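pinning this so it doesn't scroll away 📌
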Amino acid sequence: MAAAVVRVCERGLLRRSGALRAFGSPLRRSSSAGGGLLLSLHKRGVLKDSFPENAAQDRLPQLLQSAPQTVYCGFDPTADSLHVGNLLAIIGLLHFRGAGHHVIAVLGGATAQIGDPSGKTSERERLSATSVEANTQTIRESIQRIFTNHEMYFHDSHRTLGTATVLNNMSWYKTWGVVEFLSEAGRHFRMGTMLSRHSVQARLKSPDGMSLTEFTYQVFQAFDFHHLNQTRGCRIQLGGTDQLGNLMSGHEYIQK
């Protein structure tokens, strides 16, 4: 994860999403609290850019300044511990929380069993449900410990601290049947768009190709954001630069 990518989804009158592709001169001119937070994260190398490209320099800082927002990032428990690639995403969540925004760490108890093809030249080794469940528990404890330690030892007690929540996406997928899920969510995704994603194109050109399981991963990550948007008012997602295709899928799904 070279850097984090932030994506914002706005609802209501501002149904179109606004975000920042590159934190350049327009953001430097912003004196708002929202603009200051984004500029600080950019200077620290935590944030690289944002999606979508339009209306970013004003709308996202204004959104962050208008009221506490909900920000989420996903972590697939494919191993029994966090790794260095998770560091920037966690730092990003801590900074948003320290600025008074609510943060959610979503553990991919469901998506880890599917496997994210991003950045991979071959299919991930399939993990058993038992392994994923065990990994989920240890990573949950690690993230909760990080949130607690940040609050105890690093947060400025004179500033309002946002809430921190850890969820498992298995909790909303376990109630869905395959046919029901495809009927509800699948109709909102276009094959041409999904095939155009860089992660898909790279795998299709590889000797091993891509399985149907991996191909559907972007649908599940998109649905995660849609679910959090609907149930928790989540408008912003953090993710690694290799996740841009998945982030775009979620943004497009929410707009439909």
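📌 and the second one:
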Amino acid sequence: MQMETVNQPAEGDVHCTSVRAADSWRDAAVASGSIRAQGALLSTEFDVFDQGEVREHPAGIVGEEVVAILEGEFDIDAAGEHYRLVAGEAILIPPREPRRFSCVGARGVLYRAGTSLDASASTSGSPSGQSA
């Protein structure tokens, strides 16, 4: 599956972005890849992994994000912590922290939704988003 980006249409009064990924990630024959939509402050992404596939993001690259496992089993290393999550579970990762996703099963699908670094800059001081 090739990396796709779905952007807001330039026509009329359309203000929302629709990400039509269902056929892509539900089809077991689809190879690994991503479908992504980027807004002004948030991004959303469906990531399909092959068995044993690993994807990493170093510190300082990604904002705060929620990662939900839609299919399969993953080892997730983030912010110096390790988790093994399965379909139906999710994790909230703080902004600017390194993260590594390893597909443990035969195939895996992640849904990721996160802020841009500019959007998360004001909330990185504490878990509640308040500055000290």
